[in-house]
TrEMBL record:
SUPFAM superfamilies: HlyD-like secretion proteins (SSF111369). Pfam families: Beta-barrel_RND, BSH_RND, HH_MFP_RND, RND-MFP_C. The lineage of its organism: Bacteria, Pseudomonadati, Pseudomonadota, Betaproteobacteria, Neisseriales. GO terms for molecular function: transmembrane transporter activity. Keywords: Signal. This is Efflux RND transporter periplasmic adaptor subunit. Residues 102-171 form the Multidrug resistance protein MdtA-like alpha-helical hairpin domain. Belongs to the membrane fusion protein (MFP) (TC 8.A.1) family. Residues 1-22 form the signal peptide. PANTHER family: ACRA/E-RELATED COMPONENT OF DRUG EFFLUX TRANSPORTER. It is found in: Cell envelope. One of its GO terms (cellular component) is cell envelope. One of its GO terms (biological process) is response to antibiotic.
Amino acid sequence: MRYSPRQLLSLALLLSSPVWLAACGSPQQQAAAVPQVTVETAAPGDVPMTMELVGETAGYRDIEVRARVGGILLKRTYVEGQPVKQGQTLFQIDPAPYQAQLGQAKGAQAVQLAALQKAEADLARIRPLYQEQAVSKMDYDNAVAALNSAKAAKQSADAKVKEAQLNLDYTRVAAPIPGLTSKQVQSEGSLIRVDAAEPLTTISQLNPIYVNFSISEQDSLNYEHSLSTGKVSADDGTLHPVRIRLADGRVYAQSGKLDFRDNRVDPKTGTISARAQFPNEDERLLPGQFVRVLLDLGVRKNVLTVPEQAVVQAQADNQLMVVGADNKVQARMVKLGAHVGGRVVIESGLKAGERVIVDGLMQARPGTVVKPVTAAPAKA
């Protein structure tokens, strides 16, 4: 079958139109196939160096209130869990036996006082006779010895009276410090023993309040090495500001100060004990609370940081997706450091000037070509 020239031209146009349409759509499809990612150029900067540790609050002074004399506990004169003042009466022990002992001691004191007065009178009478040699020297020496003995006996009697008075006063158990009381351990009517294992109650002074924590030996050595090499800039080590994060995630409003660091490493735990002191005027912090201690150690110099969302977890390793000069994605194994304000320090595996993908990681597979868009500059 033969076709006319017009039919041949129409057939040629019909056959070539799909190829032309495909050729026209290829650049659009190729452009759409290149994913767009947001990148950040790694640049060195200074970041605060903060160490986060586990701590426990403790009273500035925790005093166990114990009885200094034994006897029957008659009554409790304070409200459990409420603050008390120094010298305030907390318990009353039966004073009757000690009042009787005080009476006996005073009677013995009176006897010794009478003996002393007689010895003084005897010596006063014999002294002029001895001077006139009317009595022997032995009689005079006996009178002097009797007076000295009477003085010693009177002194011993005075001490017994003082001891009995102290024991009577100790039947009133008073608060040795101001603070917050705990629950009563011994109830009224109990027989109180001086050598009892349990105290009557405990008083905690809460303002200021202590926070005890421990620093690992390795962290301490790393920090000292960073100071000596100039990687960390810090003020006087005894003036490190300390903050605490409470159990609900809030940071305590007032900062504290480091006031103690032990001079030895605990061989059982490999840690160094330390303590910080915090103001606690409203007594919101109570002893025994577990907190997170934020210890500000200075400023790290010239370190690389990336946003936390840029880190990809690959089993036990951490990776960053880096865009090369040819816009191809490369996976980098990195070692992470401290987390600071939504960013993480990169200890190794990344160089300054490299472009790190911070958004669009789902489309950025290693070896693929991407269209990088620069993110806003980040502050360290």
